[in-house]
Prior knowledge:
Elements: H1 6-29, H2 37-42, H3 62-88, H4 93-97, H5 109-132
Amino acid sequence: MGLEFTPIFLMILVGISVAVGMLTMSYLLSPGRRKTQSNRVKQMPYESGMDPIGDARQRFDIRYYLVAIEFLIFDVELLLLYPWAVGQWHRDETSTALGASFGVPLELRTMAFFGVLAFLGILVAGFAYTWKKGVYEWR
């Protein structure tokens, strides 16, 4: 076996050395090794700079989850609308000259536009329904 594999073995040796060194330093510098007053304070639960009150496993109002779901729906809506908005009116002369086109084809743009309007209408109808049901009214 020649010297052609020496850099690979050196790289493996350096990788193992770094991993063992990081584990050793983590063990030596870990706060759990020393029991001092400051460590007990540092290991207390932290809640926005205040002492925690009550149990962390408390129940939340169902309305909180509904608002969270609404947020996710509108966040996903943005993920769908942004690429459509970029591709809807995209016109690249060089790509059409090469035979490849990007974005929505010209003959489908009107149909895609009304499809997106229908999608937005359904979302707005759902939002109005939840608003009418009083999801956003906090007591």
